[in-house]
Write a structure and sequence with these properties.
The chain is 25% helix and 28% strand. The longest helix has 18 residues. The relative contact order is 0.21.
Length: 183
């Protein structure tokens, strides 16, 4: 797939740490996010999967995206029933239902980046990205992105999130809320 996606699509760049997680996404159509480390808004249009060092030759890149179909809160025990003795078996996770994985051609390499946590971007940035750094929303667009995410949050009424006040935020605060570090 090329990178033809709506420019205003909301995208969450999510970390894929294991090949097994990629297979779960491909075969069963879901991705898990621990509630305690989840970003503020899960109700986005797409997930873009950043593949870590465990992916061998395909490491440190975004190779796949998937449309988000919905999400629910559950436990790790319910998601991964073959791991009843896992230390986090009773912790809560978002189970994000996704459509089929779409391969990005070419994939988006990390470049100098290696350690990535969740962050938001848009379809416009994804279309033009040559490296992961190109997905970082510029200062002048951060307020627009944050407003779109807040509107989505209000519409979806996600778990445990109350009304959010309308305030103008400084760029550093916006960057932190969007998962952007050191930019």
């Amino acid at each position: 797939m090329g990178r033809i996606i709506s420019p205003d699509a909301l995208i969450l760049v999510a970390v894929m740490t294991q090949l097994r997680d990629l297979e779960i996404a491909r075969l069963f159509g879901w991705y898990r996010i621990p509630l305690k480390t989840a970003p503020k808004v899960i109700a986005v249009d797409y997930l873009a999967f950043y593949q870590t060092g465990s992916f061998g030759a395909d490491k440190w890149r975004i190779q796949y995206i998937a449309q988000v179909k919905g999400h629910e809160l559950t436990t790790r025990a319910e998601l991964l029933q073959d791991q009843p003795d896992h230390p986090r078996v009773n912790e809560e996770y978002y189970k994000v239902q996704i459509g089929s994985l779409q391969e990005l051609l070419p994939p988006i390499p990390a470049g100098k980046w290696r350690r990535i946590t969740f962050f938001y971007t848009t379809g416009e940035y994804l279309q033009d990205a040559e490296t992961v750094n190109d997905l970082i929303v510029h200062s002048e667009d951060r307020q627009i992105l944050w407003t779109a995410l807040r509107e989505r949050l209000d519409k979806e009424q996600t778990y445990g999130i109350g009304d959010q006040p309308e305030v103008e935020l400084e760029d550093e605060v916006l960057a932190a809320l969007l998962g952007i570090q050191g930019q």
